# Entry
Amino acid sequence: MMTATMYETFRNTALFSGVVAVLIALAWGTNSPYGAYALHTFALLCLLAFVSSRAWLSGLTFERSVSIDTLAQGEEVAVTITVTNKRGWPIPWLFIEDQYPGDFPIAGVPNRLSILMPGRSLTLHYTLTCPRRGYHRIGPLVLESGDLFGLQRRFITSGERHYVSVLPTVAYIDTFSIAARRPQGPVRISNRIYEDPTRIAGLREYAPGDPLSRIHWKASARTGELFVKQNEPSNVLGATLILDLHEDSYLPEEREGRMELAITTTASIAYLLQMSGEQLGMVTNASDAAEVAQWEQAAGRAFSREDLASIITQDPDSDRISPLEVPTRRGTVQAQMIIENLARVLPGHGLDAADLTLAAYQRLPRDAALLPVVPQVTAQLAEVLAQMKVSGFAVTVFVIRHQRAYEEAAALLAPYNINAIHIEHQRDLHELKPETIGR
# Structure
């Protein structure tokens, strides 16, 4: 699709060609051969500039490689770019510039002005330090060239873009002993229908229908009658984290800081539960930056830097309505999956926290506690959580950095015996007690 700048360029070119043609006709009509010769020479020069500026960029190939695509905050990613001239003619001047997040510290040079001979390659190396969480774009590569007379300049962008995921901060919760048998601590459950096979409560006589795996063979051999093992009910539930990143739920002041603290809180609790060996999952109403990003985009051409900027920044918006979810289950990579998803989340505009919880209700296991991480608790959300509590879920709410919102949440949740915890700073995560989670 032709942009306004390109249309204006073509219009000016057509107007210029028409003016030159009229002047040449006038020169011949007024019997001025030297004027006609000068005009012919100038038109030929412009045509040569137009053709050469297009030809020099048409034979270029580009390749970019990054050393790592998932890293922690403060770590570095090395970028290597190779540009090759595959045509049979030299390029008198070529300016190469790679795009990267402007606030990232950089070592090395991401741009270069050079002459590129036929069949030769040019390589750039630079290193980025990634200071903040997010899903960050490296690229596209911008190449600029033109004719020797300075009459024409051309720009081209490669369609290749790379993205790196910078993981959120994980606060290690020191009050929980990872080496303990039950690091999360006991929680109250109303329906004791799940038994822990590692905790034997006693023996009873065999009854038809008991599985063979529960027979206590030593006791049966000693007494001559079949006995089966009785296990204690499991009192470690694991949890499903419900992260509210709906943009309208956060006040404009300190919105970004509160969202980052909510993400850190979710990542830290996920890591704790993973180290405890418990089941774990997450549901959030955030947008996924991987959906917003345009991974493959065709190479673009432009006649000006303004037109080029519109090509570089044309990433589509996400229309996600359904929640972004990591299903609740036990596994060795559950926390890693959650943390990698949290690296890519952006503020959402679809479901609020109450609707998010209701939308995920049918998929939530009742033997896992619900841990909403929210900026505020509305009356609607309090009613939804109360219904979840009545239906058998253990619920603990984490309110993020807002004293008045915490006080209002505590008042709304107290009649339903739902505990609310105020996370004002990251250091508050280190002071969590086992008995406060999953009540």
DSSP finds ten helices and 22 strands in the chain. The chain has three domains: 1-166+293-316, 195-233, 239-285+323-436. The first strand starts at residue 60 and ends at 66.
